[in-house]
Amino acid sequence: MREPRPFSRDTSLDVHRMIVERWREMTPAAKAQLVNALTRDCETLALAGLRVRHPDATADELRLRVGGLRLGRDLMIEVYGWDPGEGRR
């Protein structure tokens, strides 16, 4: 079996192994909770970045912009009729 590679250069192989072992010990429900929390955190960070880049955007526009980050420009236009590059509705 091949030796696993750490997640990043600053993660030692011992730490990498410890993290993987903890994941293996988690129940499926605990893993789902972790993924849910990480997803919420990513959305919070994305929203914060959008607020900085678009300080005058309404709450609706920010929601659309978060969707644009997830779906991409072409799908946003196709599904919602809204171009993230154009901005406001």
Instruction: Give the number of helices.
Output: 4
Number of strands: 0
Strand content: under 5%
**pLDDT < 50 stretches:** none
Topology, please?
Blueprint: H1 13-25, H2 28-53, H3 59-71, H4 73-80
Helix pairs in contact: 2-3, 3-4
Describe, in plain words, how this protein is organized in 3D.
The protein has helices spanning 13-25, 28-53, 59-71, 73-80. With 89 residues, it is mostly helical. It starts with 12 loop residues before the first helix and ends in a 9-residue tail after the last helix. The longest helix has 26 residues, at 28-53. The chain is elongated and about 50 Å long. Helix 2 crosses helix 3. The chain has a domain at 55-89. The model has no long low-confidence stretch (mean pLDDT 90). 67% of the residues lie in helices and 0% in strands. It is built from four helices and no strands.
